[in-house]
């Protein structure tokens, strides 16, 4: 497929997204660094509300920059002020106006979810296909909207199964889920570059949070990226 005329702008937007994901990735490392530290009150920071608050910051920062990426890519003209939500159906519709096929059934994202093995360890999870990606992003949008309005994040929906169920009811995003969302952002942008006629060589160097142990497991493949 010949490159789309907007491909250079899409590559620029992907580079901006990569830069915007640097700080959330660093905060993932910070979250792990403070596990063994104590605060000024002498209480452990690991497992504290202070530490838990970082995951919401990581997630909302990542969400903001990936939403900005699609708004930059799909702006039809400089005077357009209407904001596009991170909604596959709406983004696909606007993409059609660019003569570009976005969020097709071979699109996918990789993230971290609760594994099935003993110990409640997180594992890489792949969501592939229009419906699966739509469910995942709908839960992420619901969480972002709750956090943006100061609501209780544990009331978020979990139709995709990407969040962790709480014993007392409700759902939560753990650090691994926030880290996984960073990867999902990279996957969405990479597939957008391809949709505009780009190649793997056009991808930016995506940021990688510091990983060790289980978090350093090899990522699964995606149909369009591997």
Notes on the structure:
Helix content is 45%, strand content 8%. It is mostly helical. The strands form 2 sheets. It has a two-stranded antiparallel ribbon. Strands 3-4 form a two-stranded antiparallel sheet. A hairpin with a 5-residue loop joins strand 3 (164-165) and strand 4 (171-172).
Oligomer: single chain
Low-pLDDT residue intervals, each spanning 5 or more residues: none
- Count of alpha and pi helical runs: 6
The secondary structure category is: mainly alpha
Distance between the termini: 18 Å
Radius of gyration: 18 Å
- Count every beta strand, where a strand is a DSSP E run of 2 or more residues: 4
Quick one: overall form?
globular
Write the element-wise H/E pattern from the N-terminal end onward.
Answer: HHHHEEHEEH
Helix percentage range: 40-55%
The percent range for strand residues is 5-15%
Mean pLDDT: 91
Strand order, largest beta sheet: 1-2
- How can the largest sheet be summarized? 2 strands, antiparallel
Q: What's this, in brief?
A:
The chain is mainly alpha-helical and 226 residues long. The protein has helices spanning 7-20, 22-33, 49-73, 88-97, 130-148, 175-195, and strands at residues 108-114, 122-128, 164-165, 171-172. It has 6 helices and 4 strands; from the N terminus they run H-H-H-H-E-E-H-E-E-H.
